[in-house]
């Protein structure tokens, strides 16, 4: 990953020890991607095993104490050694499984306020809710800071100014001809 191998080391070389960088991150889909073992509800099944992600430990509060909760059964489990637990078992362990609700909604969950399914409940637990993107995890693990810019905001997201200028020049130079834009794009692609 360029951030880890190039950008952060370049900053640290340029400024020396003791300086903290603040990265401003454009809010694109790629930048909000999660790490391979992140707590992401869409990567889980309701039941144990099958095709589902092997995720890092979560946690929940019990009597004022933070309890670490593995998402995978231990190697000495009698039936399901080293198997991902799935939504139901994870919620049962912290006493949050709602037997009257479905495991998950057939289509996307619609509710924002009332629990529609058990998947919805787990997604809102603090360990899942605090899951950070891989970009943020990488920056913070190196001791730096990051802020995500507002999506598409024309004033508070400065890259939008550059896009705006690109579009302005393109519009001016092409005199409205689509063929000009196509040729330009093809030329750029073959040049690179
Ligand atoms: Zn639901």
Could you walk me through the main structural features you see in this protein, from its secondary elements to its overall organization?
With 192 residues, this protein is of the alpha+beta class. Among the domains are: 35-132, no CATH class; 159-191, no CATH class. It is 36% helix and 9% strand. The protein is built from 7 helices and 4 strands, in the order H-E-E-E-H-H-H-H-E-H-H. It has helices spanning 2-15, 86-93, 118-123, 126-129, 134-141, 159-174, 178-191; strands spanning 22-25, 58-62, 65-69, 145-148. The strands form 2 sheets. Strands 1-4 form a two-stranded parallel sheet. The protein has a two-stranded antiparallel ribbon with strand order 2-3. Strand 2 and strand 3 form a beta hairpin. It is extended.
Q: What secondary-structure arrangement, pairings included, does this model have?
A:
Blueprint: H1 2-15, E1 22-25, E2 58-62, E3 65-69, H2 86-93, H3 118-123, H4 126-129, H5 134-141, E4 145-148, H6 159-174, H7 178-191
Parallel strand pairs: 1-4
Antiparallel strand pairs: 2-3
The chain binds zinc ion.
Low-confidence stretches: none
Beta strands, count: 4
Trace the largest sheet across and list its strands: 1-4
Kindly state the percentage of residues in helix: 25-40%
Describe the sheet with the most strands.
2 strands, parallel
Question: What characteristic shape results from the CA principal axes?
Answer: extended
What percent of residues are in strands? 5-15%
Query: On the 0-100 scale, what is the average pLDDT?
Result: 91
Distinct ligands, ions and cofactors found in the model: zinc ion
Specify the structural class.
alpha+beta
Radius of gyration: 23 Å
> What is the terminal-to-terminal distance?
22 Å
Topology as H/E string? HEEEHHHHEHH
Please count the helical segments. 7
């Amino acid at each position: 990953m360029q951030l880890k191998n190039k950008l952060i080391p370049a900053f640290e070389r340029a400024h020396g020890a003791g300086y903290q960088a603040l990265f401003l991150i454009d809010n694109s889909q790629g930048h909000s991607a999660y790490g391979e073992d992140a707590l992401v509800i869409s990567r889980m099944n309701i039941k144990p095993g099958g095709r589902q992600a092997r995720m890092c430990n979560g946690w929940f509060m019990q009597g004022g104490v933070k309890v670490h909760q593995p998402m995978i059964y231990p190697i000495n489990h009698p039936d399901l050694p080293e198997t991902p637990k799935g939504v139901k078992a994870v919620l049962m362990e912290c006493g949050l499984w709602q037997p009257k609700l479905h495991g998950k909604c057939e289509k996307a969950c619609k509710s924002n306020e009332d629990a529609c399914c058990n998947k919805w409940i787990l997604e809102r637990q603090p360990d899942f809710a605090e899951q950070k993107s891989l970009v943020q995890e990488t920056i913070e693990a190196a001791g730096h800071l990051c802020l995500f810019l507002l999506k598409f905001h024309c004033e508070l997201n400065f890259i939008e100014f550059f896009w705006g200028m690109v579009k302005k020049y393109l519009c001016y130079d092409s005199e409205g001809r689509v063929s000009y834009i196509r040729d330009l794009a093809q030329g750029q692609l073959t040049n690179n």
